[in-house]
């Protein structure tokens, strides 16, 4: 790398892709060239990067010939096909899909938590599930303080996590309900994501299902949180369970997290380490009715933590309310942070 990296964004026209471009505009990563890649139908569109119009190119293997870092967010099947091609041509891939997350040779990285895992990359680095990232940023300082034995998390996940079409769908559902349409007549095409059975209306509703049901009647989203947490924390003994819920919020995921520590601590101790933790903003003053809100997290790169309180029955049990922008820190910003870390650690082959 002399005067900067050649960076490609795969899935540049999607909800996360556009945020990747926005975050690359703000990064300190030296960039000499940016390449925007998407499907054939999107090729030819012009997107702005730092005020300059850049044409979107069709995603083909040869597009990676001069690329140093490739940021993927175009679906697992696309990553499966093209990520190895990018690596073969010399690029380091940062993949935002679930395709490689549990691969034993692929680091699964939240830079505030396990940046050192990047040293073991073999060309592909996985960006964790958005809800996992959110929880890891909040729990890592507590783990360092007192260890973690058990986690019970319930998520309240925004519609933007299901993509641009889902946002439009829930808006249309809300209009129909307000116009007096009965729920059974609502447009219900694509929620919950990846389900091949019923699609329930989400407007004025809450769906206790994200992705399809899997082993033990947990959804794939819930299993992602369980398995990814163990991999990132390098602790297969940690006890963790999740209930993932889609709510009619456009952007900004929220989580209610119950954590049991291995060692005795206090609410004051936990608040203090969180206040010093990278990427964390503590908003926790019940006397002034201050706590994190999804609407306030939109456009912010940090993870917001509040409602920090002890459990009334378990000595080492604590409760947290955690909020962040799922398209930024949950996807695009975490990916760009990984790229920045690769640069800082001199881990990109050029």
What does this structure look like?
The protein is an alpha/beta fold and 350 residues long. The strands form 3 sheets. A 6-stranded parallel sheet has the order 5-2-1-6-7-8, sandwiched between helices. The protein has helices spanning 15-26, 76-88, 111-114, 130-146, 164-178, 220-233, 267-276, 294-297, 328-344, and strands at 5-10, 31-38, 46-49, 52-55, 57-58, 69-72, 92-95, 124-126, 148-157, 239-246, 253-261, 280-282, 303-310, 317-324. The protein is globular, with a radius of gyration of 20 Å. The termini are close together.
SSE diagram, text form:
Blueprint: E1 5-10, H1 15-26, E2 31-38, E3 46-49, E4 52-55, E5 57-58, E6 69-72, H2 76-88, E7 92-95, H3 111-114, E8 124-126, H4 130-146, E9 148-157, H5 164-178, H6 220-233, E10 239-246, E11 253-261, H7 267-276, E12 280-282, H8 294-297, E13 303-310, E14 317-324, H9 328-344
Helix pairs in contact: 1-9, 4-6, 4-7, 4-9
């Amino acid at each position: 790398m002399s005067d900067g990296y050649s960076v490609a964004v795969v899935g540049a026209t999607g909800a996360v892709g556009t945020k990747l471009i926005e975050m690359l505009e703000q990064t300190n990563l030296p960039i000499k060239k940016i390449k925007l890649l998407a499907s054939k139908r999107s090729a030819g569109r012009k997107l702005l990067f730092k005020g300059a119009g850049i044409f979107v190119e069709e995603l083909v293997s040869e597009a990676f010939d001069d690329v140093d870092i490739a940021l993927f967010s175009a679906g697992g099947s696309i990553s499966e096909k093209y990520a190895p091609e990018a690596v073969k041509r010399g690029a380091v891939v940062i993949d935002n899909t679930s395709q490689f997350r549990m691969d034993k040779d692929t680091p699964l990285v939240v830079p505030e938590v396990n940046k050192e895992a990047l040293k073991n990359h073999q060309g592909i680095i996985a960006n964790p599930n958005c809800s996992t990232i959110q929880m890891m940023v909040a729990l890592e300082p507590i783990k360092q303080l007192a260890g973690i034995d058990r986690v019970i998390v319930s998520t309240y996940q925004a519609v933007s996590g299901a993509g641009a079409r889902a946002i439009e769908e829930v808006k249309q559902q809300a209009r129909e309900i307000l116009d007096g349409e009965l729920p059974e007549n609502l447009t219900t095409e694509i929620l919950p994501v990846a389900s091949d059975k019923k699609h329930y209306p989400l407007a004025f509703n809450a769906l206790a299902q994200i992705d399809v049901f899997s082993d033990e009647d947990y959804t794939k989203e819930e299993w992602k949180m369980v398995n990814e947490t163990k991999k990132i924390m390098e602790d297969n003994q940690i006890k963790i369970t999740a209930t993932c819920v889609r709510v009619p919020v456009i952007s900004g995921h929220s989580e209610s997290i119950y954590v049991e520590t291995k060692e005795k601590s206090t609410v004051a101790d936990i608040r203090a380490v969180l206040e010093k933790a990278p990427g964390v903003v503590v908003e926790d003053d019940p006397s002034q009715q201050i706590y994190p809100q999804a609407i306030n997290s939109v456009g912010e790169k940090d993870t917001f933590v509040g409602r920090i309180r002890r459990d009334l029955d378990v000595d080492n049990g604590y409760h947290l309310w955690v909020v962040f922008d799922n398209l930024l820190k949950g996807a695009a910003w975490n990916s760009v942070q990984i790229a920045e870390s690769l640069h800082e650690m001199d881990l990109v082959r050029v």
